[in-house]
Write a structure and sequence with these properties.
The protein is an all-alpha fold and 237 residues long. The chain has 2 domains: 80 residues, no CATH class; 90 residues, no CATH class. The protein is built from 12 helices and no strands. Helix 2 packs across helix 3. The chain is elongated. It starts with 6 loop residues before the first helix and ends in a 16-residue tail after the last helix.
Length: 237
């Protein structure tokens, strides 16, 4: 049976414009009969505008007439062209040109070395590669491991900078939430608080003024202890 587009709005229209039983409307729209009864009583979907299933191609007039003539008849929905247009288009697998495919191992190694928080599934989806290839690059079991070097995938032209930034940000958020949940501090240096670096040693100043707090009275004034000395008398005088 085809999926009904806007089931509650369709049920509102059928309640207001047909003589169908609640069970028939519920079966057609994929709702519970009590929910349809609530719509009829004005307790459910009060602000929802009815949608005509005949106008949008999900129900034929002949099918509706059969259901109104027999309350045990269950209507069959038609495939609506509107419903097909509203379905999200499935994203096609990423296509990598043949000339660029040999660069993917370099991009994989870049992720392994610089962003270990990015999962293999995310790398596989972004670069259009397989998990087995990622594991071979990580374990150095790839047939061309000797020539593989870590290179930014943006530089290689495999992805855009926006795609790369979005992926790294998403992976970092997941890692942060997992660490907070487990109470484990993150090892990322960028998340550590800044610290002031103290010098390993300080240069010493040998001037008397710099050391005056360490000098004694005798060091400054001599053994006299700072007392004023009387001038010596001349014997002839």
């Amino acid at each position: 049976m085809a999926e009904i587009l806007m089931p509650k709005a369709t049920a509102v229209w059928l309640v207001d414009n047909t003589s169908l039983a609640f069970a028939q409307i519920a079966d057609f729209c994929g709702l519970h009969p009590l929910e349809v009864k609530g719509i009829a009583d004005g307790e459910v979907a009060r602000d929802i505008r009815g949608a005509d299933p005949i106008a949008n191609g999900q129900l034929t007039r002949e099918e509706l007439d059969r259901a109104e003539a027999k309350d045990t008849y269950r209507m069959k929905a038609q495939v609506s062209r509107h419903a097909e247009l509203l379905k999200p288009a499935k994203k096609a697998p990423r296509y990598t040109p043949v000339s660029r495919r040999q660069d993917r191992p370099d991009a994989i190694l870049w992720f392994v070395k610089h962003h270990p928080e990015v999962t293999d599934a995310q790398i596989s989806k972004l670069l259009g590669t397989t998990k087995s290839t990622i594991e071979q690059v990580r374990s150095r079991g790839h047939w061309n491991s000797i020539n593989i070097k870590p290179v930014d995938p943006v530089t290689l032209g495999l992805v855009s900078q926006i795609e790369l930034d979005a992926l790294v940000k998403k992976a970092a958020e997941v890692k942060r939430k997992q660490a907070e949940k487990l109470g484990i501090p993150l090892d990322d240096p960028s998340l550590k608080p800044a610290q002031t670096v103290q010098p390993a040693f300080e240069e010493e100043d040998d001037s008397p003024y710099a050391r005056k707090s360490e000098l004694s009275v005798e060091d400054v004034f001599g053994a006299g202890g700072g007392k004023r000395s009387e001038p010596e008398e001349d014997e002839d005088y």
